[in-house]
Design a protein that fits this description.
Elements: E1 3-8, H1 14-24, E2 30-37, H2 43-50, E3 55-57, H3 66-79, E4 84-87, H4 96-101, E5 106-110, H5 122-129, E6 133-140, E7 150-157, H6 164-187, E8 191-194, E9 197-200
Parallel strand pairs: 1-2, 1-4, 2-3, 4-5
Antiparallel strand pairs: 5-6, 6-7, 8-9
This protein binds 5-O-phosphono-beta-D-ribofuranosylamine (GRF).
């Protein structure tokens, strides 16, 4: 199946940029169909528009409930023929409407080696805990926060003197590569999920 990617992003959008670059360089065979953000000022929206990609801001405050907001987002993704949703720095938790509309077709990038350090400030959590290695994880999204089946991970050392900022930077470089690697595998239909276990063909 040719990938038609919909990206949900709330902020800077450097992971979105990695996908855009991979597509533009023909390293990834996919179409980025639409970007949706819950944040009007998200740099991700500007990045998308700068590359001629459709970008929508949907304000959660315009809807009576989170579910209704999400139904609107799902509508936009469906209208644009999206068959894979990428959460790339999307700061809201995926709820029922999204999970039901895209079963096993939503992936997320998380800046730690899950199941360690789920949730916010994963890099800070890693520094505070004193781990010697951290990294990033791309996983399928299910109803558990950062808890779905793991597709690929990259390991990054934590160096003496690292702070949240320096570790985040080192991890981010790997995030960009890892996300594109997973998308390539998905575009080649090489990712098989059975329960929690993901096999790469
Ligand atoms: C990344 O560290 C990602 O792992 C996390 O949020 C950050 C988003 O960065 N989920 P960006 O918006 O892609 O630059």
């Amino acid at each position: 199946m040719a990938l038609r990617i919909g990206v949900l992003a709330s902020g800077r959008g450097s992971n979105l940029q990695a996908i855009i670059d991979a597509v533009e360089r023909n390293e990834l065979s996919a179409v980025i169909a639409v970007i949706v953000s819950n944040n009007k000022g998200a740099q991700a929206l500007e990045r998308a528009r700068g590359h001629g990609i459709k970008a929508s801001f949907v304000n959660p405050k315009d809807f009576p409930s989170r579910e209704e907001y999400e139904r609107e987002v799902v509508g936009i993704l469906k209208e644009n023929g999206v068959n894979l949703v990428v959460l790339a720095g999307y700061m809201l938790i995926a709820g029922r409407p999204l999970l039901d509309a895209f079963k096993k077709r939503i992936i997320n990038i998380h800046p730690a080696l899950l199941p360690s350090f789920p949730g916010l400030h994963a890099q800070r959590q890693a520094i505070m805990y004193g781990v010697k290695f951290s990294g990033c994880t791309v996983h399928f999204v299910d109803e558990h926060l950062d808890g779905g089946p793991i597709i690929l991970q990259s390991v990054v050392p934590v160096l003496d003197g690292d702070d949240e900022e320096s570790l985040s930077q080192r991890i981010l470089v790997e995030e960009h590569k890892l996300l594109v690697s997973v998308l390539k595998l998905l575009s080649e239909d090489k990712v098989k999920v059975s329960g929690r276990i993901v096999r790469i063909l």
